[in-house]
Amino acid sequence: MPSPSIHVHEAEAGGSIPWWKIGGVLVLGALTAFGFVGISSLNQQGGVGISMDLPVLTGGFEGVPQDVSEAEKVVLPADTEFAKMLYKNGSGAQINVQIVLAGAEKRSIHRPEVCLPAQGWTIASSGVVSVPLDNGESLDVMQLVLSRPVEVRPGEVRPLNSVFWYWFVGDRVTTPSHWKRILLTSWDRVVHRKNHRWAYVIASAPVLKGLASQGLDLPETETLLRKFVAELAPKIMRNGNPPK
Questions:
Q1: What's the pTM?
Q2: Band of the pLDDT at 236, cuts 50, 70, 90?
Q3: How far is CA 210 from CA 191, 207, 213, 217, 230, in A?
């Protein structure tokens, strides 16, 4: 999966899965398999609930497009679509935004808690955050507070924290939960004959207090991200996409 892009000098996390989640996935998985027998009119692509055109200017930040890594090209299906932008403001604050849009294959979208530790990040905390948007709606996102050591100069290593937000966008639906996305996918395929073409949205910001001049601490970084997403989300999410 995409890694938080952090430029310094250069709760769904962990634990066992509740029994009701496992049971729900198994039941809906069985329904889906059964439903495929009689569903010939299923829309295989469904609607796309998000725009892949990230604005260059938003929330007092200016964005610079970022390239897709070779690892992402190799690991993810060929029909996966990407949008990546690194935003900076006049104070030196940085926010990395990435959108991954699944194609016909669904393995483009996955649970970030699985791969972030493999990239060297420790997940310090996780939980759902409700964000009031500029259009009057609200959006639930999953917040992970990450940490890993970075070399700020030769021979000097310091801990770096990052505030990592993500949420999933389907056809007129959003959710911060990987497991709820799976349940919605199975239910809507069987009951509504709708196949969501899910997008996975990331907005992350490094905590640069002590690492850069005018760097923000953790609460200040969370506030910065909240204000930024409040303006950005209505610009890229189509049809309102009310949280479900």
A1: 0.78
A2: very high
A3: 53, 9, 7, 8, 27
CB-based burial label for 228 (10 Å; 0-12, 13-18, 19+):
buried
Angle subtended by helix axes 19-38 and 178-191, to nearest 10: 30
In this structure, the number of other CB atoms found within 10 A of the CB of residue 204 comes to 24
52 confidence band (pLDDT: 50, 70, 90): very high
Hey, how many other C-beta atoms are within 10 angstroms of the C-beta on 167?
A: 26
Q: Region 67-82: what's the mean pLDDT?
A: 83
Q: What is the rounded distance in angstroms from the CA atom of residue 67 to the CA atom of residue 82? A: 9
Q: Which residues pair with 46 in a beta bridge?
A: none
- Please name the amino acid found at residue 123: I
* List of residues 6+ apart from 106 with CB closer than 8 A: 185, 198
Nearest to 99, CA basis, from 242, 235, 236, 243: 236
